[in-house]
């Protein structure tokens, strides 16, 4: 398969935790619907007053999805720049677990050819 093939597997850009899940009030009700290997949407939050490179992580849904949290600050600049440039980048849920009242979500960030 050539490097230019449109059916090439996506490139894993980043493996990380989803930051800020403890600040999302509705996650306990939505967590049972989160499935391993589920595709997630990344949305740029260019007007964030806290992080110039903020990238939100959402589930995919016709209704806009559930906002799960953010890519971690300090590890998000490359992904933010690629999103700003129009590249197709998604994420995939690779692990989920509860630690006390904190929902631990691990994802892979994927760059599609």
UniProtKB/TrEMBL annotation:
Residues 14-111 form the HIRAN domain. Keywords: Hydrolase, Metal-binding. It comes from the Bacteria. It comes from Hymenobacter koreensis. InterPro entries: HIRAN (IPR014905). It holds the Pfam family HIRAN. This is HIRAN domain-containing protein.
């Amino acid at each position: 398969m050539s490097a230019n093939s449109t059916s090439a597997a996506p490139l894993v850009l980043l493996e990380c935790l989803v930051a800020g899940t403890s600040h999302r009030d509705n996650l306990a009700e939505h967590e049972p619907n989160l499935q391993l290997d589920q595709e997630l949407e990344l949305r740029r939050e260019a007007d964030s007053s806290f992080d110039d490179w903020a990238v939100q992580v959402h589930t995919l849904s016709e209704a806009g999805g559930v906002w799960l949290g953010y890519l971690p600050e300090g590890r998000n600049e490359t992904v933010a720049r690629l999103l700003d440039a129009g590249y197709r980048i998604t994420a995939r849920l690779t692990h989920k677990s509860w630690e006390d009242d904190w929902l631990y979500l691990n994802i892979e960030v994927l760059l599609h050819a």
